[in-house]
Task: inverse folding
């Protein structure tokens, strides 16, 4: 019997080849990318500025940092830009070289990969299904007090879509400060939250020098190929250490220009938030009506679902849907998720309707 591989959320080509489905007929609900695609305004703007590729970017990215600072309502001197948030995750971990690190489970796997490269001892704090994967702040702080050089949070978290609110983050930051721990928060999905200010920790940057927040444009701005990420910290010495470690001109000229424009595209931001918030509510409401499925509160642009029907696996659901050209994320690769789960991101309304019908048909 042919072994079934595990697929990343965006591995459409590999999935198409394995299941003999035309790749151009697959709707990918696994990549968590904005279904609106790249902004039309940005496309026109970039096409008119291709000559930027003939010049080196500003080594300090002064204009881009100012735009990011305005967007996040922080100071430009607290901003660093990079070749995607992945580069900044790597730089942060390589620079701090933590001996002991506390991460959540389940969460984004890239943290663990980078920590392994510097030989950090990783302790995973498990989110409980019984708490709807919401972090128990007091228990988590008790764990922090045991002594960790680095604490990593993803907020909203991937793959659970759960989120911590500002007062909870502040409690964790106070605890980290007392324990001598540095806190990294990955806010990749924060712009999809119902109330961004309720979830984002950007307003705490100036008050805590043991904090760094990372974001990127891959998901919300549908630009994973641009490789633009940015971070914020008020720890000036740490920021200088990061810049010393970072290769010069890490972000290309066109990428820097694109960042300046996309973060100011209010029409695109509004359309995206209107679409995601509306469609997410509809999908969660309708899928919750299927009595053998549990839908967890979602703050990101994706939703985690648990299968409660005996004998049915996430692979069964994946295979049924992929034959209809609908590719969800089989979550069996997240080792900390005990049970059968799948995840889907919010797409265009007509695609969401197809997915909903497919899920309803499977569990009918």
Result:
């Amino acid at each position: 019997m042919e072994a079934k591989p595990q697929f990343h959320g965006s591995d459409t080509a590999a999935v198409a080849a394995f299941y003999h489905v035309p790749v151009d007929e697959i709707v990918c609900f696994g990549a968590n990318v904005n279904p609106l695609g790249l902004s039309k305004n940005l496309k026109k703007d970039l096409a008119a500025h291709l000559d930027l590729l003939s010049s080196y970017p500003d080594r300090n990215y002064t204009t881009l940092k100012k735009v990011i600072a305005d967007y996040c309502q922080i100071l430009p001197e607290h901003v660093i830009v990079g070749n995607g948030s992945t580069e900044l995750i790597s730089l942060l971990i390589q620079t701090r070289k933590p001996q002991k690190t506390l991460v959540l489970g389940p969460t984004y796997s890239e943290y663990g990969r980078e920590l392994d490269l510097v030989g950090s001892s990783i302790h995973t704090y498990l989110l409980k299904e019984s708490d709807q994967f919401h972090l128990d702040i007091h228990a988590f702080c008790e764990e922090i007090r045991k002594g960790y050089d680095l604490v990593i949070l993803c907020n909203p978290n991937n793959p659970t879509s759960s989120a911590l609110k500002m007062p909870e983050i502040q409690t964790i930051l106070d605890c980290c400060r007392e324990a001598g721990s540095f806190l990294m928060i990955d806010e990749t999905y924060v712009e999809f939250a119902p109330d961004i200010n309720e979830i984002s920790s950007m307003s705490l940057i100036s008050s805590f020098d043991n904090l760094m927040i990372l974001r990127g444009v891959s998901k919300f701005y549908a630009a994973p190929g641009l490789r633009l990420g940015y971070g914020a910290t008020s720890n000036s010495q740490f920021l200088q250490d990061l810049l010393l470690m970072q290769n010069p001109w890490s972000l290309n000229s066109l990428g820097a220009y694109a960042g300046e424009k996309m973060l100011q595209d209010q029409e695109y931001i509004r359309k995206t938030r209107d679409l995601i918030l509306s469609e997410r509510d509809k999908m969660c409401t309708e899928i919750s009506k299927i009595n053998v499925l549990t839908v967890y509160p979602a703050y990101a642009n994706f939703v985690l679902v648990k299968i409660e029907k005996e004998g049915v696996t996430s692979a069964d659901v994946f295979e049924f849907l992929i034959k209809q050209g609908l590719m969800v994320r089989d979550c069996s690769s997240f080792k900390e998720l005990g049970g059968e789960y799948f995840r889907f991101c919010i797409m265009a309304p007509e695609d969401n309707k197809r997915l909903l019908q497919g899920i309803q048909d499977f569990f009918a």
